[in-house]
């Protein structure tokens, strides 16, 4: 059973998502929250697996709440809810530790799939949307950043795998590209995350762009 919390300052959105999620036999909504501070309190009391977090809320917003909840490796996974896909607030929430984001007009099936993906420990990386968001804003935070010294801890193969993760390839696709087993790719990804102190693949994509390892296509020569 996947335990869920829904945080949104609009009651209709909050109760709507909670009611929809509760229709699934493998989901249980253990709490709702009206702002970021409330979300942190409810999550600490209920220990959910996944939080659906509105990014813009009065008081403590979704970014700060995400930062507090993901500080611990045992904290819940966070899925950001937003109205606009290219939203710097969403990018900041992903940098703070969110595993991905969903638009509020998401279909029910897409919502259910996203929750299951994130609950399983995978990052929600929509190929055309999340990477576009990251590439759009990464250069705003570090316009001309050279590759970070943090990447020096990686082996050449791990660096190659990180670059392919940032380009949006799945583990099977990376395995095929490098002519190795999928299990080998999983091992490389795990080592990359551990060496760089990252929570999941979404954080790896952010790191790859912000260190200059991957250059957004619009900025390529």
From TrEMBL:
Keywords tagged on the record: DNA-binding, Phosphoprotein, Transcription, Transcription regulation
Chain ranges of the Response regulatory domain: 3-119
Q: Which Gene3D superfamilies match?
A: 3.40.50.2300
Modified residue 4-aspartylphosphate is at which positions? 54
| Span of domain HTH luxR-type | 147-212
As given in the record, the signal peptide range reads none
InterPro entries named in the record: CheY-like_superfamily, NreC/VraR/RcsB-like_REC, Sig_transdc_resp-reg_C-effctor, Sig_transdc_resp-reg_receiver, Tscrpt_reg_LuxR_C, WalR-like
User: Does the keyword section mention Transcription?
Assistant: yes
Keyword DNA-binding recorded: yes
PANTHER family according to UniProt? TRANSCRIPTIONAL REGULATORY PROTEIN NARL-RELATED, TWO-COMPONENT RESPONSE REGULATOR
This chain belongs to the protein called Response regulator transcription factor
């Amino acid at each position: 059973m996947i335990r869920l919390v829904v945080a949104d300052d609009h009651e209709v959105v909050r109760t709507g998502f909670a009611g929809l999620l509760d229709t699934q036999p493998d989901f249980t909504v253990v709490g709702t929250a009206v702002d970021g501070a409330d979300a942190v309190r409810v999550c600490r009391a209920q220990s959910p697996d996944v939080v659906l977090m509105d990014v813009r809320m009065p008081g403590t917003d979704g970014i700060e709440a995400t930062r507090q909840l993901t500080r611990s490796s045992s904290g819940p996974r966070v899925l950001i809810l937003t109205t606009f896909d290219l939203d710097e607030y969403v990018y900041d929430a992903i940098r703070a530790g969110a595993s991905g984001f969903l638009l509020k007009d998401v279909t029910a099936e897409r919502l259910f799939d996203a929750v299951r993906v994130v609950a399983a420990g995978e990052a929600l990386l929509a190929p055309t949307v999340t990477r576009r968001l990251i590439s759009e804003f990464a250069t705003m935070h570090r316009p001309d950043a050279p590759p970070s010294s943090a990447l020096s801890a990686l082996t050449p193969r791990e660096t190659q795998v990180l670059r392919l993760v940032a380009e949006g390839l799945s583990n099977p696709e990376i395995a095929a590209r490098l002519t190795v087993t999928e299990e080998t790719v999983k091992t490389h990804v795990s080592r990359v995350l551990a060496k760089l102190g990252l929570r999941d693949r979404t954080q790896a994509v952010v790191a790859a762009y912000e260190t200059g390892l991957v250059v957004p296509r619009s900025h390529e020569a």
